[in-house]
């Protein structure tokens, strides 16, 4: 059982092969708007222009920046190929819709949430997020490279005020073609919006999962926080995963939250989840934990364990630079992240998602 020597964000710098989908999402509120005519949209802000393009049907192509000032640049081109099926519910109760496509010539995923549009792409230098707010011409940009505790870039991801936690629809969640990922945000992540966690750690994984690994599946990502007994647990000691798994089991039972092989529960923390570990999960089980202080693919790595992926099937690739696929462990400082699973792990995950083979509901075995 190899122990993870996780690379930190400072090593998230070189990745590219990522086949990401660029998505732009588009809120229910926005969906109610009448489509903007092409003449009007010429002078519209980026978010309005995006909504108008989506309303015309997909695929769609548009320019996003410098619209009013006439400074549109050819490389601010957004090509939206399709919408990814499923719901993203943020911790404030608002919803996001996900699209994939190309942004500035790179695969990207776009999340349209209430009042905002976030474009996440994986570049050679790491995760790149460009954000636009409704009614504004300002371009918000954040590059998630370097140490997360030393970011100087402006935050690209905005969120609305707190609201009650999302109440999942159990009947919907039990549909056979649907997978549900519950991301339970520990109280010590309160300084980071769930929108931000999604754009930086999850959106690129979600697009890769839906486009390349399990196409045709409906995938929900539900963020929750401020749940007594679940998100306020003590952690960082050996055996944390056992105790949190017990807490999650009780909570799901009380709230009638389905727990099948297609339902996964990840505690997202700020610090190390157990001594010398940024993440740990039950192999093919229900529950896992991942730290935002680990490398950027830590969430993808732990979800991979829950879906049957293995360290031994991971790869180091060379594409002008060396990178490690999501399940690689232990990680080396000098290598970057590929932000994808190896072909062998994609196959293991595909098998698991289709058949549930090897699912152990109350598994207490981890690779980490
Ligand atoms: Zn692992």
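Sequence proposed for the structure above (368 residues):
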């Amino acid at each position: 059982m190899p122990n993870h020597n996780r690379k930190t964000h400072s090593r998230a710098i070189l990745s590219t092969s990522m086949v990401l989908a660029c998505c732009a999402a588009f809120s229910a509120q926005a969906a109610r708007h009448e489509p903007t005519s092409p003449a009007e949209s010429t002078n519209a802000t980026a978010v309005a222009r995006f909504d108008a393009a989506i309303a015309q049907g997909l695929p769609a192509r548009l320019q996003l920046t410098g619209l009013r000032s006439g400074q549109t640049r050819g490389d601010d081109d957004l090509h939206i190929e399709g919408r990814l099926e499923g719901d993203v519910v943020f911790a404030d109760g608002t919803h996001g819709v996900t699209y994939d496509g190309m942004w500035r010539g790179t695969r990207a995923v776009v999340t349209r949430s209430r009042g905002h549009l976030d474009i996440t792409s994986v570049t050679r230098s790491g995760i790149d997020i460009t954000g636009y707010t409704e009614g504004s011409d300002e371009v918000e940009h954040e590059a998630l490279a370097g140490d997360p505790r030393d970011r100087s870039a402006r935050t690209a991801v905005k969120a609305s005020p707190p609201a009650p936690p999302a109440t999942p629809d159990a009947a919907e969640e039990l549909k056979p073609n649907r997978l549900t990922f519950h991301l339970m945000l520990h109280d010590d992540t309160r300084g980071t919006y769930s929108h931000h966690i999604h754009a930086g750690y999850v959106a690129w994984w979600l697009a890769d999962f839906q486009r390349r690994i399990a196409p045709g599946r409906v995938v929900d990502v539900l963020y929750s926080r401020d749940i007594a007994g679940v998100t306020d647990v003590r952690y960082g000691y050996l055996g944390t995963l056992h105790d949190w798994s017990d807490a999650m089991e009780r909570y799901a039972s009380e709230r009638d939250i389905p727990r099948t092989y297609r339902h996964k529960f990840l505690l997202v923390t700020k610090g190390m989840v157990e001594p010398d570990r940024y993440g740990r999960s039950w192999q093919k089980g229900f529950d896992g934990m991942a730290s935002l202080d680990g490398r950027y693919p830590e969430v993808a790595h732990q979800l991979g364990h829950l879906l049957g992926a293995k360290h031994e099937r991971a790869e180091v690739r060379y594409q002008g630079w060396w990178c490690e696929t999501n399940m690689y462990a232990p990680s080396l400082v000098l290598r970057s992240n590929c932000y994808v699973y190896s072909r062998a792990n994609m196959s293991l995950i595909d098998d698991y998602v289709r058949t549930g083979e090897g699912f152990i509901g109350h598994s207490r075995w981890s690779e980490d």
